[in-house]
Each structure stands twice: as C-alpha cells, then as structure tokens.
Design goal:
Blueprint (H helix, E strand, L loop, with lengths): L32 H11 L18 H16 L5 H35 L5 H20 L1
C-alpha cells in the first residue's frame, strides 16, 4: 500500500495510507472532501452517555450488580451508550463481584474469630453436641 502524497506545512509527508485509486489519504483527498467533512461532523455526534446525572451506584451485593447489568444492557440496546462505555462498566462490574466475594469471606472469618474469642463457640462442645444429636436420631430411627 502506498502512502499519502500530502506534504504538511512543516515539510514532512503524511504517513497515512492512500485511498484506493488515489494518491492521497481520506483526510487529504479532494475526491473524498465531502465525505471527510461529513465524517468529521458526525464524529461529534457519536454515542456518549453521561452517567454523571444519576445517583452514585452502590454495589453491596449480587442483587445490586444484577440491577446495574440490566441497566447497561438496556442502555446499549436503546443506543443510549456505546459498546466501549458498556465494556468499561463491565470491567468494573467484574471487579465489584470479586470485591464483594472477598468482603463476604472476610466478614465470615471475622465473625467466626469473634465467636471463638468471646467463648461463644467452643469447638469441642459443638462437636459433642452434634454427636449427641446424631446418636438420638439414630436411636429414634432404630426403634
């Protein structure tokens, strides 16, 4: 592929590829001047969705995440947001899913640790209680 023959004001040559059957690129071709102008004008009309006008999103559980996913899907389907924006939001949703999972694990570990430290959970007593319940069930089923 040949490069554009346009010479810039600083004397350097344009490095873009020339359009088929032309010696200039799309930006510098006289043949495509109207199409180039239209493309430049349409560039400012591309899909852009501002989420700044909405309440902050708080993701604390899976239900919140499902709601956000539904919102993004509906925005893409209605052409209210671009696929690029939706992809970035999806990346953040994945991070939120991981963070929520880690937070739940951490919360459970702290709860278990607190129970053990306060004496509310004596593992030996708990096992003995379960064994006793198992014996009672076994005896009742044998009768």
């Amino acid at each position: 592929m040949k490069t554009c023959n346009f010479i810039k004001p600083d004397g350097s040559q344009c490095n873009a590829y020339a359009v088929k059957d032309d010696e200039f690129c799309f930006s510098h071709s006289e043949k495509h001047k109207d199409k180039h102008l239209e493309a430049v004008m349409n560039g400012g009309k591309s899909l852009k969705r501002s989420y700044a006008d909405q309440e902050p999103i708080i993701l604390r559980n899976n239900e919140d995440i499902v709601y956000l996913i539904e919102q993004v899907i509906n925005d893409v389907r209605a052409n209210n947001t671009s696929n690029k924006t939706a992809s970035v939001i999806a990346m953040y949703i994945n991070l939120a899913i991981k963070a929520i999972s880690l937070a739940l694990i951490d919360k459970a570990q702290k709860r278990n640790s607190k129970m053990m430290n306060t004496g509310n959970l004596d593992l030996k007593q708990h096992i003995e209680k379960l064994e006793g319940e198992l014996r009672i069930k076994t005896n009742n089923s044998n009768q």
